[in-house]
Specification:
The protein is mostly helical and about 70 residues long. Helices cover about 75% and strands about 0% of the residues.
């Protein structure tokens, strides 16, 4: 009886280990397709135009000035 119980526990551990291994392999396969290739962003400077950048910088300056006035 002890031998049968040992084989049962060993079988359950083997099945659980195989399931965990398979889940990790599937997860890595799915996550591998979502990797970002940063070579695609070589022309990033051309995506944001100068007017948009100035608008962003002015908003930041205005927020900092308002914060300083509160203090």
């Amino acid at each position: 009886m002890s031998k049968g119980l040992g084989f049962l526990i060993l079988g359950i551990l083997a099945i659980l280990g195989g399931a965990i291994f398979a889940a990790l392999v599937i997860k890595n396969k799915l996550a591998g397709n979502r990797n970002i290739d940063f070579d695609d962003f070589d022309d990033f400077e051309h995506v944001v135009d100068d007017a948009e950048l100035e608008h962003f910088l002015n908003e930041k300056k205005d927020a900092e000035a308002a914060k300083e006035e509160e203090d």
